[in-house]
């Protein structure tokens, strides 16, 4: 009888410890953006700034692997807290001088099976519990619409470098009048923009219209106009003098480079 009591007590204690452990894992808030500070236990240098962002509502992934933008999805196991798996992870195809970090990040994401909380943030682990990616919360720099004053050259659309066009693609915002002016590569564009009162980084373009000229390459222009319709927010880019326009899921749709040369407005 005593043995039975001890067995039941041990089982109860084990269940209590298990519940406590599961509860601890379940409280980890994965939402938002995370800097990748180490891959496979190797710390990254200050110049390498890969990150991932997790949209918990849509179970979607966005970010940057070190050179190219990331997109994908993820799955969580509600029965086994601390379990996560990334699916349909894709990246844009730009070439950078050093692709080593990016290759390691992409390989690690494909192996992720779980996560755990650390003192500094979160660690993503493989099926055996080995650390793959060490994450720290990424605090976005404070921005206001005033940061968008001036002319901005459109350097990337949907993660791809803008190719040769008839005119330099750019946008310029009149903050006081809340209007947009620019060029999509061939045609002049005009429109308006609005923000949510309590969200200084929100941005949505409205009533964007363009002139009707025909140019040899209209593909880039079409992509730019489509991207402008997707914009929901903006943030400062990783490089100085850049700004990123993002869609409703926080994925990058357009990269802007501040124009420091001759004015493009005609």
From TrEMBL:
Cross-referenced Gene3D superfamilies: 2.40.128.270
Keyword match Mitochondrion: no
Superkingdom: Bacteria
UniProt keyword terms in alphabetical order: Signal
Limits of the DUF306 domain: 30-135, 148-256
Region forming the signal peptide: 1-23
PROSITE patterns: PROKAR_LIPOPROTEIN (PS51257)
Protein name: META domain-containing protein
């Amino acid at each position: 009888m005593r043995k039975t009591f001890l067995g039941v007590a041990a089982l109860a204690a084990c269940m209590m410890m298990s519940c406590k452990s599961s509860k601890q894992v379940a409280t980890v808030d994965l939402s938002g953006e995370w800097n990748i500070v180490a891959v496979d236990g190797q710390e990254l240098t200050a110049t390498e700034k890969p990150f991932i962002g997790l949209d918990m509502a849509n179970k979607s992934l966005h970010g940057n692997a070190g050179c190219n933008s990331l997109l994908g999805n993820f799955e969580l196991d509600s029965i086994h807290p601390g379990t996560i798996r990334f699916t349909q992870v894709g990246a844009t195809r730009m070439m950078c001088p050093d692709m080593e970090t990016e290759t390691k990040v992409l390989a690690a994401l494909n192996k992720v099976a779980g996560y755990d909380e650390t003192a500094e943030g979160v660690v993503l682990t493989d099926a055996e519990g080995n650390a793959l990616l060490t994450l720290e919360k990424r605090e976005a720099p404070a921005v206001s619409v005033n940061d968008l004053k001036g002319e901005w050259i459109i350097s990337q659309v949907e993660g791809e470098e803008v190719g040769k066009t008839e005119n330099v693609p750019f946008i310029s915002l009149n903050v006081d009048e809340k209007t947009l002016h620019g060029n999509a590569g061939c045609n002049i564009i005009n429109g308006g923009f609005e923000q949510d009162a309590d969200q200084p980084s929100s941005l949505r373009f409205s009533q964007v219209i363009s002139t009707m000229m025909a140019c040899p390459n209209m593909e880039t222009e079409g992509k730019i106009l489509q991207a402008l319709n997707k914009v929901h927010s903006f943030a400062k880019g990783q490089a100085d003098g850049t700004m990123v326009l993002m869609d409703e899921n926080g994925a990058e749709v357009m990269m802007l480079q501040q124009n420091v040369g001759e004015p493009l407005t005609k």
